């Protein structure tokens, strides 16, 4: 059964949910389980690429966001807001990137309470190299049409 390529374990789980009287929860269980499994698979693909650059996806996102800004720097709080992550996660990512020489902390020029994360030249270079590989090996290799990808992003936006 599990070796049968036509067998879908999530469809079977939904069937079991319904068989056990959880009809109302079956569709949501299928969505959550599908997203979690897809996330595991996609993260493994991204990690395989980024590991060659000694990056995690979280640190890659910080580098890329900084590289997209005009001056290559942003306040730490704004990084967290734009990446939709907890401030502690931003601090941890910036700490590691700073140790790697990809980012440096700078005082804000007009707000003494704010610290900026600033991209270094080596950080800009690794972001570009890793980004090109992620584009080619992960983002462009999803086996979805543009319309399917856009529809999926729109659906997931409702959950986010």
Automatic annotation (TrEMBL):
InterPro entries the UniProt entry points to: HTH_MarR-typ, MarR/SlyA-like, Tscrpt_reg_MarR-type_CS, WH-like_DNA-bd_sf, WH_DNA-bd_sf
Keyword DNA-binding appears in the UniProt entry: yes
Keywords, alphabetical: DNA-binding, Transcription, Transcription regulation
Entry annotated with the keyword NAD: no
Superkingdom field: Bacteria
One GO molecular-function entry: DNA binding
Residue intervals of the HTH marR-type domain: 28-160
A GO BP entry: response to stress
Pfam families recorded: MarR (PF01047)
SUPFAM superfamilies assigned: Winged helix' DNA-binding domain
Protein name as annotated: MarR family transcriptional regulator
Source organism per UniProt: Iamia majanohamensis
